[in-house]
Amino acid sequence: MAEVKKVDKPVAKKKVYHLKKVDGRWEVILKEGAKVIKTFATKEEALTYCETLVKNQDGTLLVHASKGKNKGKFIKN
C-alpha cells in the first residue's frame, strides 16, 4: 500500500499597508509594492480610506509617525 503524504496548504499572508507622509501628502503603499496606491492631503482622509481597505482585505496598517518624538516609528492599527 502506498504511503499518503500530507501536503500543507499555503497560508495566505495578511496584506500590510503603510501610511506615510511624503512631501506634505499622505501616501498609502502596499508593503511589497513600490507603487503608491493613493495619496491624500490630510492624515484623517488617509486613515478613513485605510481603515476600509484593511477591513476589506483582512490586512494590517502601519502608520509612519511624521513628527515629534516618535518620528520614524510605526503605529500599528
Query: How many angstroms separate the termini?
Result: 52 Å
Number of helices: 1
- The portion of residues forming beta strands comes to 25-35%
Strand order of the largest sheet: 3-2-1-4-5
Content-based structural category: alpha+beta
Outline, from the CA principal axes? elongated
| Pattern of helices and strands | EEEHEE
Q: Radius of gyration, Cα only, in angstroms?
A: 17 Å
Low-confidence residue ranges: none
For the report, how would you describe the main beta sheet?
A: 5 strands, mixed
- The number of strands is 5
Mean pLDDT: 81
Helix content: 10-25%
Question: What report would you give on this structure?
Answer:
This protein has 77 residues and is an alpha+beta fold. It contains one helix and five strands; from the N terminus they run βββαββ. The longest helix is centred in the middle third of the chain and has 15 residues, at 43-57. The termini are far apart.
